[in-house]
Amino acid sequence: MNRVALVTGGAGGIGAAICRSLAEAGHSVAVADIEQDAAKTIADEIDGLAVEFDVTDPEQVANGVHKIGSALGPVDILVNCAGWDVMTPFVSTDDAFMEKVLAINLAGPMRLTRLVLPAMIDREWGRIITIASDAGRVGSSLEAVYSGAKGGMIAFMKTIAREVARKGVTANSICPGPTDTPLLGGMAGENAEKVVAAMTKAVPMKRLGQPDDIAPAVAFLASEGAGFITGQTISVSGGLTMV
């Protein structure tokens, strides 16, 4: 069945792969990203809709959801994929850094969920999928604030899942391990090559994840067949975490 999907961070490495996978499943996809040109490129590729979206801007988010509703219909599938971090010792962070990480990785997904959830409840169908991180499950050195935000998102999804379990709406988290995207190199900073090599060595499969490793899990959770799966946290990490 054709559903309307909204993917934040839809022009990024993982986000773009998710957009393609949802489009292949027959859904109408809104590619929401702060990088409008990149979003339009992905949207053109999949015959979707590009929407300028800064998840930290309440007005822009509300306008974006309204635009999607007018063009495609109400959002049935929300994928919170937008994220940002820089690997930094916690004692070296400041309030501005902390606020940015929390605004993008925690408050933004909460804001989107609050906007689209009431209509999902009314229609008695919905899928909310958050791209969290294994950092939010087991912690990650140099990512204290990011880990806290992603851990918060995992707990948030579980709580939403409980609140709407009888309403035909599911809420789940996908936790990628280290994944080969431009964001990963940016997060690692000047020591990117060394950090990425260490991450790769730690993965039992001895490779980084690829965006196309993540997208199928999202497409499944968005499907009709996943209607009895809710409140779950699924790692896609090559075995890096097994808890």
Summarize the helices and strands and which ones pair or pack.
Layout lengths: L3 E5 L4 H12 L3 E6 L2 H11 L2 E4 L5 H14 L5 E4 L14 H29 L2 E6 L3 H4 L5 H20 L5 E8 L5 H7 L3 H11 L8 H11 L11 E4 L7
Helix pairs in contact: 1-2, 1-9, 3-4, 4-6, 7-8
Structure notes:
Helix 2 (36-46) links the parallel strand 2 and strand 3 (49-52). Strands 3-2-1-4-5-6-7 form a seven-stranded parallel β-sheet, sandwiched between helices. It has one domain (4-236): 3-Layer(aba) Sandwich (Rossmann fold), CATH 3.40.50. Helix 1 crosses helix 9 and helix 7 crosses helix 8 (192-202). It has helices spanning 13-24, 36-46, 58-71, 95-123, 135-138, 144-163, 182-188, 192-202, 211-221; strands spanning 4-8, 28-33, 49-52, 77-80, 126-131, 169-176, 233-236. It has 243 residues and is α/β, with parallel strands linked by helices.
